[in-house]
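Collaborator request, handled under Task 6.
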Amino acid sequence: MKNLKWLLLALFIISTCTASLLAQRISIRGHGGWHKKQRSINLDVPIIADIDETSKVLSLEFLEYIGEVRVSVADANGNIVYGEVVNTQNTSFHIIPLDDVASGSYELSISDSENYAE
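Structure tokens returned to the collaborator:
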């Protein structure tokens, strides 16, 4: 039984390390702020963005309902390469395929009528 616990712990550590190597977390800076009811954990921007450079997929996780938001990805010249309105009531995850996008620097923007995060 003791060996089984150590084996499960080792598998958990390996899977956590492998997942962190494949995905890169992107920090999102907010302008304004998401005005919601106070909770025990106060987050400036209730969104987590992860990019998997291998599969060229950007995933967004909305940690709370923030209404309809405009999600866009722009290249270094400001050209929008992806844009969509997402209703966070219907989904807490949103996947953005980037396989048709050339390598380079891009800006992710998420906004509603009052708030803006990039």
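The cover message to the collaborator said: "Helices lie at 2-22. The longest helix spans residues 2-22. Please let us know whether this matches your experimental observations."
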